[in-house]
Write a structure and sequence with these properties.
Layout: H1 2-19, H2 26-31, H3 35-41, E1 49-54, E2 57-58, E3 62-65, E4 68-70, H4 72-83, E5 87-92, H5 98-103, E6 109-110, H6 118-121, E7 124-126, E8 131-133, E9 135-140, E10 155-159, H7 163-169, E11 179-183, H8 186-194, E12 200-204, H9 205-213, E13 218-220, E14 228-230, E15 233-235, H10 239-255, H11 257-266
Parallel strand pairs: 1-5, 1-6, 10-11, 10-12
Antiparallel strand pairs: 2-3, 3-4, 6-15, 7-15, 8-14, 9-12, 9-13
Helix pairs in contact: 4-10
The structure holds glutamine.
């Protein structure tokens, strides 16, 4: 079977080379088993492209390096696009604009360290999950806030429309904050914390580590407030794309490619 698929791949690569002379990455695409079949099956917003929406202020998942969006999700988007024979193109936007962009067909998918949650599932489908995450608390080094219980009565900053926002905004979660300050992104909330305008920031665990690393005088508390799974948001109308993405993610999981991407950004 393995041998058969290999031969098929070689044949496909040959066909693609013949069909697309001068197309630089035809040989690379041929190496991805089944890539030609997948790309034939999926329809995307712009033919030949996989447009992914994100908010590139969420290191290590997506952030700017010069003019380029880099990070775990950027590498996953590129790898999936390559497997589907498509060209990845990123659209950077506010986090709370991503699900609407998927439903309105502005982008094909949302990859943004996005947690699978009930509300979002009403509007989009989610792929299989690719990362386990959770919310964490960032405070100033000299803060008297030592755990989630100490958030009671405090002014807490979050990124607007995130699960961190939901967590501190709903007293059912066991916290009763004085007020929630909503920012466009985590680094903006951290600036406000450093400036003494708010008492704490609640944001996803790994971005919290990066924010603390990139600042002076901030610490991340050990406590994990939630248990969340990240997945890729796909339009409910494009189930072929959802299936193709799940197929690509599965291949990346089995080959170790996904773990290699995570290790590159998370364990340093
Ligand atoms: N995981 C959080 C959520 O889905 C935050 C994502 C983000 O800010 N990029 O709401």
């Amino acid at each position: 079977m393995k041998k058969f698929t290999k031969i098929m791949s070689l044949l496909l690569a040959g066909t693609m080379l013949l069909g697309a002379a001068g197309c630089g990455n035809a040989a690379t695409e041929g190496e991805n088993e089944g890539s030609a079949a997948d790309s034939a099956a999926v329809t995307t917003v712009q033919e030949g492209k996989l447009i992914w929406g994100t908010n590139a202020a969420f290191e290590p998942y997506e952030y700017m390096e010069g003019d380029t969006v880099v990070g775990i999700d950027a590498e996953i988007a590129d790898a999936i696009a390559a497997k589907l024979g498509l060209e990845a193109q990123v659209e950077n936007m506010d986090f709370d604009a991503i699900v609407p962009a998927v439903t309105s067909g502005k982008v094909d998918i949302g990859i943004a360290g996005m947690t699978v949650d009930e509300k979002r599932l009403k509007n989009v489908n989610f792929s299989d999950t690719y990362v386990e995450a959770g919310q964490a608390i960032i405070v100033k080094e000299d803060s008297d806030i030592k755990s989630s219980a100490d958030l009671n009565g405090k002014i807490v900053g979050v990124q607007r429309g995130t699960t961190g926002d939901e967590y501190v905004s709903d007293e059912a979660n066991g916290v009763s904050v004085a007020s929630v300050e909503r920012y466009a992104n985590g680094p903006d909330a951290a600036q406000s914390l450093l400036a003494g305008k708010i008492d704490a920031v609640v944001i996803d665990n790994e971005p919290a580590k990066k924010i603390v690393d990139n600042a002076t005088g901030l610490v991340k508390l050990e406590e994990n407030l939630t248990s969340e799974q990240y997945a890729i948001a796909v339009s409910k109308e494009n189930t072929e794309l959802l299936d193709a993405i799940n197929g690509a993610l599965k291949e990346m999981q089995e080959s170790g490619e996904l773990q290699a991407i995570l290790d590159k950004y998370l364990n340093k």
